[in-house]
Design brief:
By secondary structure, this protein is an alpha/beta fold. It folds into two domains: 2-30 and 276-379, Aspartate Aminotransferase, domain 1; 49-271, Aspartate Aminotransferase, domain 2 (3-Layer(aba) Sandwich). 42% of the residues lie in helices and 16% in strands. The protein has helices spanning 2-14, 33-44, 57-71, 85-97, 112-120, 140-144, 169-182, 210-215, 240-253, 259-271, 276-294, 330-341, 365-379, and strands at residues 20-21, 80-83, 103-108, 124-129, 151-157, 185-189, 216-221, 234-237, 300-301, 309-313, 321-322, 325-326, 343-344, 346-347, 356-360. A seven-stranded mixed beta sheet has the order 2-8-7-6-5-3-4, sandwiched between helices. Strand 5, helix 7 (169-182) and strand 6 form a beta-alpha-beta unit. The chain is globular and about 60 Å long. The model has no long low-confidence stretch (mean pLDDT 97). Keywords: Aminotransferase, Transferase. This is Pyridoxal phosphate-dependent aminotransferase. It comes from Anoxybacterium hadale.
């Protein structure tokens, strides 16, 4: 579904059609120079052989120090696994903890891979919808209603992709209590942790106490904070027994993460801390996008707490017609916008909640405003 739109957008670009993409889930900022220079240095030194499958010691130590410094979490090196991005870490976590028929509670809308990864291991995704009127913030009571004797794990993603919602600390505490009470694993995807705005704050659920820490697999990556999406460096931290099982899967699936990327990762985590300019720019773009979208007839857009997406309500356009085509869902509306406005975006169906479209504001302001002008012009064509 989403790939079909991406393929069509790619084909249009190859035909020299100016497509503005609000679809890509990655920063538009470049990897910081000092990180790239570190990679060049180690390439020139010939650091190009196999390295430890679970991560080079200096990167694991940098991650260990980061988790202690920023997340108030203390782990040993044996409790940390370096992966090819956060996606692989989450996949290996499911592989380590799930048996056929185990249920995994997943709040929706959610990152596209969670549900499919659970299915790969013959698990059963149990969806907990969040509500637009709550700014898509997850409530512990909604999690509690879905717990059964088959529940094995809860997936958390804060800030959330695609909504940007941040789980409030007191709700997170309640979720931790539910997990401990029912002895449920928590997979906490924290890849957008630095990208929060206004008074919102991200808190690692594992930091509440040792009981929830033992049950939590904390997942992060260098992709969003350090603008290193293509470098493919992520990591997981958790109880040694779980990390060991994940490491076994990892070793037989891919082996080590790229050696040069790991050396660059050490420089990033240990020595790069200049995030303020990027965060402020995203905040300003967020405000521009939310205001512009809410100025369009029939569009409703909540201001996200974090990340770099808006999850925009487009349901008022369902049933409208262009030519002989009726818009029945978010996929068809996204397809219409691509064809008529030359704007690429991601339909809400991809995230498990139709009625919405995800727009990213990780795009230069000029292109952002031009793209939204195109969206509004195209929507006026619908009758």
């Amino acid at each position: 579904m989403t790939l079909a739109i991406a393929d069509k957008a790619r084909e249009m670009k190859l035909n020299n059609i100016d497509v503005i993409s609000f679809a890509t889930g990655e920063p538009d900022f470049d990897t910081p120079v000092q990180i790239k220079e570190e990679a060049i240095k180690w390439t020139q030194r010939g650091y190009t052989k196999y390295v430890a499958s679970d991560g080079i010691p200096e990167l694991k130590e940098a991650i260990r120090q980061k988790l202690l410094r920023e997340n108030k979490l203390e782990y040993a090196a044996s409790e940390i696994l370096v992966c090819n991005g956060a996606k692989q870490a989450i996949y290996e976590a499911f592989g380590a903890i799930l048996n056929p028929g185990d249920e995994v509670i997943i709040p929706a809308p959610c990152y596209v891979s969670y549900i499919e990864q659970v299915k790969i291991f013959d698990g059963v995704p149990v969806i907990v919808p969040t509500k637009e009127e709550d700014n898509f913030r997850l409530k512990a009571e909604d999690i509690g209603k879905k717990i059964t004797d088959r529940t094995k794990a809860i997936v958390l993603n804060s800030p959330n992709n695609p909504t940007g919602a941040v789980i409030q600390k007191e709700e997170l505490r309640k979720i931790a209590c539910l997990a401990v009470e029912n002895q449920l694993f928590v997979i906490s995807d924290e890849v957008y942790e630095l990208l929060v705005y206004n008074d919102n704050e991200c808190f690692s659920i594992a930091a509440f106490d040792d009981a929830i820490k033992k049950l939590t697999i904390t997942v992060n990556s260098l992709s969003k904070s350090y603008c290193m999406t293509g470098w493919r460096v992520g990591y997981a931290a958790g109880d040694e027994e779980v990390i060991s099982a994940m490491s076994d899967i990892h070793g037989h699936m891919t082996g080590n993460v790229n050696s040069i990327a790991q050396k660059a990762g050490v420089e990033a985590i240990a020595n790069y801390h200049n995030f303020e300019t990027m965060i402020e720019e995203y905040k300003q773009r967020r405000d521009l996008m939310v205001k512009r979208l809410n100025g369009m007839p029939g569009i409703h857009c909540k201001s996200p707490d974090g990340a770099f997406y808006t999850y925009t309500n487009v349901m008022s356009y369902y049933g409208k017609i262009f030519g002989d085509k009726v818009i029945r869902n978010s996929y068809e509306l996204a397809e219409f916008l691509l064809e008529q406005a030359h704007v690429a975006c991601v339909p809400g169906e991809a995230f498990g909640m139709d009625g919405y479209i995800r727009f990213t504001f990780a795009i230069a302001r000029e292109r952002l405003m031009e793209g939204l002008d195109r969206v509004e012009s195209a929507l006026k064509l619908l009758r």
